[in-house]
Specification:
elongated, three-stranded antiparallel beta sheet, single chain, mainly alpha
C-alpha cells in the first residue's frame, strides 16, 4: 500500500516577518564594514581598519538572529547588533566632526550602510519585542 505524500510549506524567515528586515540589514552592515567609511579627497579610508571589525562581528550576530526560529533570541540579537552598528557608526561621524569639523571629508558608502543597517536592526528588535510583549 502506498503512503500519501504531503506537501509541507516552510515559512521564510523561520519565525516571523520582522526577521527578514533584520537579516537584510545585517547583510548590509557586514558588507558595509568592508567598504570605505571616510572619503577625504581621493583617499578612501576603509572601516575594516577601525570600527568595521566590530560592526562585522555584530552583523554576524544579526544574521544569526534573522535565521533562528526563536523570536526572543532574534529580538535579543537584533538589539545587540543594532546597538553596536548604529552606535559605532554614529560615534565615527561625531568623533571625526569633533576633530576636524564637517569640511574636507564626507561619509563613504560603507559608513552609511552600517548606520542604516543598525537603525533597521533596532527597528526589528523593537517590533520583535513588541510582538513578544503582546502575544
Amino acid at each position: 500500500m502506498a503512503t500519501p505524500t504531503v506537501a509541507v510549506t516552510r515559512r521564510w524567515p523561520p519565525a516571523g516577518p520582522d526577521q527578514l528586515p533584520l537579516l537584510l540589514a545585517s547583510v548590509a552592515v557586514a558588507v558595509g564594514s568592508f567598504l570605505p567609511w571616510i572619503v577625504v579627497g581621493d583617499l578612501e579610508l576603509s572601516g575594516w581598519h577601525g570600527g568595521g571589525l566590530w560592526t562585522f562581528y555584530a552583523a554576524t550576530l544579526g544574521i544569526a538572529g534573522g535565521l533562528v526560529p526563536s523570536r526572543a533570541l532574534a529580538a535579543t540579537s537584533a538589539l545587540a547588533s543594532g546597538l553596536v552598528a548604529a552606535g559605532i557608526g554614529c560615534w565615527q561621524v561625531l568623533h571625526l566632526a569633533a576633530r576636524v569639523g564637517f569640511e574636507g571629508w564626507h561619509p563613504g558608502l560603507g559608513l552609511v550602510a552600517v548606520i542604516l543597517g543598525g537603525v533597521i536592526a533596532l527597528r526589528s528588535a523593537w517590533r520583535l519585542g513588541a510582538e513578544l510583549r503582546t502575544g
